[in-house]
Structure formats: structure tokens, C-alpha cells
Amino acid sequence: MEIIQIIIPLILFVLIVIPLGRYVYNVISGEKSFVDPLFNKIDNLIFKFTGIKKDEMTWKTYILAIIISNVVMCLFAYIILRIQSLHFLNPNNIKSMTPDLSFNTAVSFITNTNLQGYAGESGVSYLSQMVVMTFLMFTSAATGFSAAGAFMRGIIGRKKTLGNFFVDITRIITRVLLPLSIVITVVLVSQGVPQTLAPTKTITTIQNQYQDIAIGPVASLESIKHIGTNGGGFFNANSAHPFENPTPFSNLVELLSMMALPGSIVIAFGLMLKNKKQAWVIFIAMSVLLVMMIPVIYMSERAGNPNLAHIGLSQAMGNMEGKEVRFGIAASALFTTITTAFTTGTVNTMHDSLMPLGGLVPLWNMMLNVVFGGKGVGFMNMIMYAIITVFIAGLMVGRTPEFLGKKIEGKEIKLIALAILVHPFIILFPSSVSLSTKMGLSSITNPGFHGLTETVYQFTSAAANNGSAFAGFNGNTVFANTTTGITMLLGRYLSIIILLTVAGSLASKIAVPETMATFRTDNSIFVVILICVVIIIGALTFLPALTLGPIAEHLML
User: How buried is residue 61: exposed, middle or buried, by Cβ count under 10 Å (0-12/13-18/19+)?
Assistant: First the structure.
């Protein structure tokens, strides 16, 4: 029965992304769609009101548009959080955030990370939840989506421009994110998720004691949190909280919500390329990397804690510490795998309570950051690995390194090598600083191998723009807020800048015809080689950190 809880969501995922991928393709490419009569009017009204021109942008202009717009929104969010005690829609009289926490939170949400150093029910007002958290969940997801669309146009296209960022972000919000969020909001409300502006309720318990029950505009945040692979919770307990995720059905809806759009981008890529086989090669490689991790975490949590078994405590139900009974082992293991593979960050179980090998799975997913990923991130990173694979395999067999009809030369390889090196650097360097300073060590609440894992997890989550956390790590200190904030910025924008530069370089190249010497990238052999390259590079880079953390902790049980 538990295995079915894992298999059914994966099957539904594949069934959903195929038609949704075609719709996403229409939105990204500007092809005609059945929604055009309505949304063309809405988009044109927005363009007229804001003065947006539809001129095509070069890769430099596109990157500049992303950076400037995101900086403005981040400053706006920072100001709102600093003065939230003064503004309206604050029925619970929430105080303003400190400067370091405001910086961390604004950066976290603009980068689609949603790493939270505060408790949502007591740390932010309703206005902040809506105009900072919810608003940035839409724009950050649309920014990543737009970058992925521009990246696709660059590596596939035959012109030097990548589209228009402001047109892209508008179309993605109005035609994809907003309609899907409305539907998911209604579904979640039907399951019991609150959606109200009423203040916290104070009730009298059967023990004749008073208890505060936090409510608010929860469902609207929950919908875009998963559709946009954001992950930030309205409550501190995130999707383990019964008001965020009350039933097994709501859990399934949230799972599929965070999986749908990252998967559909790959399908849209095949349609844009006019080569569905190529897209399925990428999709299958991602799926294999995803599926191979599920048994690891499931069997680890199902086996339970041997130390507890030795002292006579039953482990028949497995390791249920930190898990909700209404979900159990299977749904918790799948949710943990999906939320870190798709870089969402929402959690329905406490990752700090996972068994060591169970905790290794979310770490591994975020370290690779290619298993579907968030809005376009995983796709762009996997294409990056595909180009590296073509280059390596082509050199090994003496064939010309080409990808999608474009020659891969020194400039592209240098940029991609830089992108591959940046990710581990911005994880391991701040982790080492944190582990070697009193300020960093003060955040660790567990000694030994587990404490090291907590620290590495914190910066891995920040660098991968995931946002999930090992609950034992105190992230709300000046040191942690500052270092993770910088890590989130570097993890988000360096990869976008580098990969759009690659796209711009490839866009300016003349397509070369396929010959007998061309290395094929749309067959099963390439799937195997691609998976091996991803694992080998990931293993060589992060194996020492994993060995000193979860693997060593597992061996000590």
C-alpha cells in the first residue's frame, strides 16, 4: 500500500506534464493558444499601462533587465518588512523585522529560495505575507521561467536576440502562474486550508486553558508556493502544519503542483526544438536521477533507528520522528525527495529528524541541482551538463563536439566549467567558514557529524535556491542571515548570467548540418553517459562533505 503512494504521484506527474508542456510551449514561444482572446487583452492593457515595448533583447540586455527589476523588487520588499509594524493589515500587531533578517528574507524571496529565519505566524503581518512573500513568489518564479525560455531560444534559435524579458514575465504570470494558482487555491480551501484576513483566534481548551490559533490568507500563498516552486511556509512548520496541508489529498495536490511546471519545461523544449526525442532524453535522465533516490530514503526511514530498537522501543512503523501520522513514511519520503529535487523547499516532515542516509537524499538532490529543479533552473543546469557530456564524449571518440546543430568551442566550455565550479564553491566555502568560527558554530544545536550536516545543508539549500532546512540549525543570527543571503544571491544570479551568456554565444553561431561524425544526443546511449557525467562530477565534488556528514553518522549507528 505504501509503495502505491509513491507510484501514483509519479505516474500522474508524467500524465500532467505532456499536455501542460504544450501549453507552456505556446506561452514561451508566443504561438497561438485557446486563451489568447482573453489574455491578449489583459497583457496589452499591462503593456500600455507600464509602457513596455516588445522589442527583442540581446543576451546582455536581457540579463540587465532581470537584474534591475529584481533589485527594485528586493528593495521594495526590504522596506515593507522594516516598517511592517506601522502599516495596515496587521491585526496581530507583528513587530518590524531587524535589518539583517529583513535583508535575508527579501533576498530569499526574490531569489525563489524562501529560506525562512522567522516563524511565519508570528514574524510577518498579513500585508507582508501578501505584498512581499506572495508577490515575490509570483515574480521570482516568472523570472526563472523567463530565463529558461530565453536560454532555449538562444541554444535553439538562429538569431542573436533572446526575446523580451518584460513580455516574458508578464505572459508567464498572467497565462500560467496566476490561473493555476487560483485553481489550486480553491482546491486547498475545499480541503480546509484557511483563506481569511481575520486575526488570530483565541480559544478555550477542554482543560480550560487559552490557546491562540493562527490563521490568515494561507491558501493563496500555498498555491503559488508550490506552483512556483517557492517553498516558503505561512507557518513555521510549513506543509507539516495541518492548516497548510491538512489531508492526504492536499498532500498529493501540493506534490503535483511543485512537479508540474519544471517537468513541462522539458516537454516545451522538445516542441520548440521540433525534436521530441531530444526532450525525452533529458526528461528520462532527470527521472532516473530522481527515482534512484526514492528507495534510499524510503528504506532508510522504514528501517527505523537501530539505537532505539536496541533499548526496546518498537521500530515496526519505521522512523516516525518528525513526521506527521496522516502522511506516514512513504508520503513523507516522497515529499522530501520531490521538494529538494524540484528545488521547492516546502516540507511535510522535519529533515533534521531523518535517518542519516535519509538526510543524504535531499542534500544530494540540491548538490546536483539538475533533477528537474525549480522554474527552469534544473533544465538549464542539465543542458549545461549535456553540453559538457557532448564535449567529453566527442573528444573520446574523435567526433566534433556539437549540440543541437551548434559547434561547442572553447568559450562555451570555459563558461560552463565556471558555472559547474561556482555551485560547489558557494556551498563549501561558507560552510567551512561557518564551521571554523564561533559565530557560525553558535547556530549548530547538534554535535559531531550531524552538526556538520546541518551546516552544509544550510548553505546547500541557499546555493540551490531551495529553502528547506535542517531544523536544528539556527539561521536567525546576524552571521547566518548575512552569509546565507549572499549565498542565495550568488546561487541565483551567477548561474543565470553565465548560462544566458552561453545561450547568447550559441545564438550567434551558424547551424552546421548533421554528418556521420556528429555525436548523437537523442538516443539511449547519451542518456546513460549524461547520467554518469552528472553523478561523477557530483560525487567528486561533494563526496568528502557527504562522507564527513551523513555517511559517517550512518556508520556510527
Answer: middle
What DSSP line would sit under 377-433, residue for residue?
A: HHHHHHHHHHHHHHHHHHHHHT-B-EETTEE--HHHHHHHHHHHHHHHHHHHHHHHH
Copy the grid coordinates of residue 322.
518528525
Whether 371 and 387 have beta carbons less than 8 Å apart is answered as no
Q: Write the DSSP string, 474-491.
A: ---SHHHHHHHHHHHHHH
Could you give the dihedral angle defined by the CA atoms of residues 507, 511, 512 and 513, in that order, rounded to the nearest 10 degrees?
140
For 224-240, what is each residue's pLDDT tens digit? 999 999 999 999 999 99
Residue identified by cell 491585526 is 91
Buried b (16+ CB within 10 A) or exposed e, 454-473: bbbbbbbbbbbbbbbbbbbb
The model's pLDDT over 339-371, given as tens digits with 9 standing for 90+, comes to 999 999 999 999 999 999 999 999 999 999 999
- Cβ atoms of 232 and 136 within 8 Å: the answer is no
How far, in Å, CA of 532 to CA of 389, rounded? 9
Nearest to 120 by CA among 103, 134, 140: 134
This prediction has a pTM of: 0.94
Q: With contact defined as beta carbons under 8 Å apart, do 547 and 440 qualify? A: no
> Is the pLDDT assigned to residue 539 strictly greater than 70?
yes
The amino acid present at 339, given as its one-letter code, is T
What pairs with residue 444 in β-bridges?
473
**Cβ pair 424, 452 in contact under 8 A:** no
Please list, in sequence order, all residues whose beta carbon lies within 8 angstroms of the beta carbon of residue 74, skipping any fewer than 6 positions away.
Answer: 106, 107, 110
With vertex at residue 416, the alpha carbon angle to CA 385 and CA 228, rounded to the nearest 5 degrees, is: 65
The phi-psi region of residue 184 (left if phi > 0; otherwise alpha if psi is between -120 and 50; otherwise beta) is: alpha
Distances (CA, A) of 343 to 159, 306, 335, 376: 32, 31, 12, 10
Task: Tell me: pLDDT of 517 over 70.
Answer: no
Return the percentage of the chain with pLDDT > 90, whole number: 72
Residue 253 has pLDDT above 70, yes or no: yes
Q: Is the dihedral of CA 153, 263, 222, 349 positive or negative?
A: negative
pLDDT digits 0-9 by tens, 402-429: 888 888 888 899 999 999 999 999 999 9
